[in-house]
Amino acid sequence: MRPVGLCSHCDGCGDPLTVEHGLSCKKGGLVGQRHDDARNEAGSLAAMALTKSRVSYEPTIFYGTGISARRQGQSDGQTGSNKAGIEARGDVSAHGLWKNGETCIMDIRITDTDAKSYSSSTSRKVLEKAAREKKDKYLDACLERRRSFVPLVYSVDGMACKEARAFEKRVASLLASKWDRRYSEMVGFVRARMSLAIVRSNTLLLRGSRVPFARRPEIEDGARFETMEGIRE
């Protein structure tokens, strides 16, 4: 069903504005904002369960000589150590999330399970496939550095993959012990926070503006005013 009051065309690329297009169009940076909102929510929940000092954002997974970098270098006929500029970063790191002395790297992906390209697969299979792609890319590099890796894959309507559910349960368990609350109550709290962080971004993606803000011209001296419309009196 089409929501009431949507524009007929996307103001970012000019294509007809359908629900599918609105949730996936990368013009204007709204898709990136949705990802960042989910990342910030996951980091905030981890900080609640642990402490703020144990949580950081955009941790380096590998640079130049990582396992995934070597694989990419071999496919290109080069070695990873000779191929400069290869870098991969996660979204959130939490020290002591699963066990003491170990850092967990989390990487978030939000996918539209109702896209036409996924019409032959169930939503669960789409999410698990995306999680496997994340693990194939980053898991070995994290394990080599004695760190764990968890892909946090969600659908645009808040459905989570298996690893994301495990993350939510672990955070809920830590919060239940820390706040002396029931585990079932904390599971509902964590799942609601993550789901709402994703779902509330859909309104922005469907109704928000993708037109970039116009940059103000740089003025070095008074002579530039003569070329600006509306300034000269």
Question: Would you give an account of this structure?
Answer:
The chain is α+β, with helices and mostly antiparallel strands and 233 residues long. The protein has one domain (29-210). Helix content is 43%, strand content 14%. The protein has helices at 19-24, 30-49, 67-75, 123-144, 162-179, 183-207, and strands spanning 55-57, 60-63, 87-89, 92-95, 103-111, 147-155. Helix 4 (123-144) links the parallel strand 5 (103-111) and strand 6 (147-155). Residues 73-84 have low confidence and may be disordered.
List the helices and strands and how they pair.
Layout: H1 19-24, H2 30-49, E1 55-57, E2 60-63, H3 67-75, E3 87-89, E4 92-95, E5 103-111, H4 123-144, E6 147-155, H5 162-179, H6 183-207
Parallel strand pairs: 5-6
Antiparallel strand pairs: 1-4, 2-3, 4-5
Helix pairs in contact: 2-5, 2-6, 5-6
Query: What count of helical segments does DSSP give?
Result: 6
User: Which class do the helix and strand fractions yield?
Assistant: alpha+beta
Indicate the radius of gyration in whole angstroms. 22 Å
Sheet with the most strands? Answer: 4 strands, mixed
Main sheet strand line-up: 1-4-5-6
